[in-house]
Amino acid sequence: MTEYDAIIVGAGVIGLSTAYHIKRQNPDSKILVIDKFSAAGQGSTAKSMSAFRCLFSSPINYVLSDSSVDFYNYVQTELGVDLKLFFIGYLWLLGEDDFAEMAPILKKLAAKSLKYREYEAEELAKPLGLNICLRDDEEAELMGLKDVYKGIFIPKAGIVDADCVVKFYEEEFLRLGGEIRYGVKVQDLIVEACKPIGIAGEPFFWQESRISGIKTDSGIIKAKKTILASGAWIPQLLDSVGIECFIKPKKRQVFAVEAKSPLLRHLLFTEGFNPAGCLPFTILPKPRVLIRPFPTERVFWLSYADDFPRAFKLEDDPQPEKGFYQYGIYQVLVKYFPQFQDCRPYSAFAGLYEINTLDGHPVVFEEKDLIAVGGASGSGIMKADAIGRIAAALYDGEDYAILYGDRKFRVSDLSIKERRVEPEKLQI
Ligand SMILES: Cc1cc2nc3c(=O)[nH]c(=O)nc-3n(C[C@H](O)[C@H](O)[C@H](O)COP(=O)(O)OP(=O)(O)OC[C@H]3O[C@@H](n4cnc5c(N)ncnc54)[C@H](O)[C@@H]3O)c2cc1C
Fold first, then answer.
1. Structure confidence at residue 113 (pLDDT)
2. Which of 30, 146, 420, 421 has its C-alpha lying 20 to 30 A from 79's C-alpha?
3. pLDDT surpasses 90 at 379
4. 100-116: b or e for each residue (b if 16 or more CB lie within 10 Å)?
């Protein structure tokens, strides 16, 4: 039986970025990627809003995102691969209390070269048709909605096409001689004694043992290293061998509304923020409903990342809930943007966040010849390049990964045992 140098389970954005960087650094090694779906990026990657921002309070989150975005921009502008990346910016609308919380963080980041622009609410009201004053609205008061006090615009942020990013990594990995098998489902991890003695029932607890490969619905595949990049499904495989990864799945939903009316078209194509001449990715004041413009499709994607009491639940095909839009997102949205009055979504989809319950940062660690890489907690597209490089450095036994732009990153900072991350204060 062929033994691979590495098998990577999961052809999502993180699995393929990892595969590409490992193969790039080890051109002679035999690397296999497998996925249960029939094509790349059909898991959570396909369900993403595919937006990015280089604005995080945690230096680790910041460098993961900033270096990945720089790499995608390089791929698009220097290598000529269209990733449909547009720097449309993020517009974060804030109530007075939110702003008081955010101002010191922004000041600190500005000292480290973050560029942003502060808007008074009144400056945004007219160009966006934004309702900034909800004080006299009884329903808004009942819902606890706040007046808009300021807007913060972050230019190094925007949208990209996750599918194009995935295709780029897939093509490059194949071009370098990597192998991919789609439509293969991993059922279990194989545990074997490091030094087998040939007795039935091995490995016994007194033997040193390791993960030596995977059992799939089309047979056993052995490898020197097994790399789990199976997103929200990582714990499903790890639980069975008693390895904790602190990743839990949570459903997230996106609703697509067409910019049909002249008022909505005007909002979608608001000039003055970015070269694309469209509304930036916009975050409403708490509870932070998200508006992701999709100018080429003339559509808005609307979402909200609910926490309590949304269950941690692993589902193969999570479904959007009609009431989540109708009684949730819509009710908040229409108070700030009355242009959405009576708008119903023409389509919707749902996927899973793979949430790291320790601190919301990704995890990359090795145990018993198994490497786990994932837990990007809802920001895997914007961080995938850096995460892939860190996983590749771990595979190579390096202490440091070199991220795009020659930025040095200590690999163990994302491990479980020697983890060193600061809590993120700018979560959406
Ligand atoms: C609604 C929503 C909006 C989001 N918006 C954004 C955003 O704007 N920006 C951003 O950066 N991120 C966003 N994300 C997060 C982002 O999509 C994820 O962080 C990222 O896609 C994770 O990639 P992954 O490769 O780890 O997982 P996945 O893409 O889920 O890939 C895992 C792969 O593993 C395969 N797999 C699992 N189990 C097995 C098995 N047993 N056998 C074989 N194959 C298996 C699956 O088929 C899948 O293809 C969003 C996510 C959701 C759900």
1. 83
2. 30
3. yes
4. eebeeebeebeeeebeb
Centre of ligand 1 from the C-alpha of residue 361, in Å:
15
Residue 250 CB–ligand 1 contact under 6 Å:
no
The reply to whether ligand 1 has any atom less than 6 angstroms from the CB of 352 is yes
Region class of 137: left (phi > 0), else alpha (psi between -120 and 50), else beta: beta
pLDDT tens per residue, range 90-121: 999 999 999 999 999 999 889 888 899 999 99
Any ligand 1 atom below 6 A from CB of 12: yes
Report how far ligand 1's centroid is from the alpha carbon of 51 (Å): 14
Q: CATH fold of 3-50+163-246+358-414, please?
A: FAD/NAD(P)-binding domain (3.50.50)
Query: To the nearest whole number, what is the mean pLDDT of the chain?
Result: 97
Please give the pLDDT value at position 423.
Answer: 85
Whole-angstrom distance, CA of residue 134 vs CA of residue 144: 10
Report CA(374)–ligand 1 centroid distance (Å).
Answer: 9
CA proximity to 49, closest of 254, 284, 251, 286: 254
Please report the pLDDT score of residue 336 as a whole number: 98
Q: Is 83 in the pocket of ligand 1 (CB under 6 A)?
A: no
What's phi and psi for 356, nearest 5 deg? Answer: -80, 115
The dihedral of CA 121, 96, 157, 318: what is its sign?
negative
Q: What are the extents of the domains in the chain?
A: 3-50+163-246+358-414, 90-154+249-356
CATH class of 90-154+249-356: alpha beta
Q: Is the CB of 14 under 6 A from ligand 1?
A: yes
Where residue 113 falls (left for φ over 0; alpha for ψ -120 to 50; beta otherwise) is left
Sign of the CA dihedral with 226 first, then 232, 233, and 235 last: positive
Residues 249-288 have pLDDT tens digits of 999 999 999 999 999 999 999 999 999 999 999 999 999 9
Rounded distance, CA 273 to CA 88, Å? Answer: 7
Report pLDDT digits (tens) over 160-215.
999 999 999 999 999 999 999 999 999 999 999 999 999 999 999 999 999 999 99
CA torsion angle 46 66 99 331 (round to 10): -10
What is the pLDDT, as a whole number, of residue 425? 84
55 CA distance to ligand 1 middle (Å):
21
Residue 428 has pLDDT above 80, yes or no: no
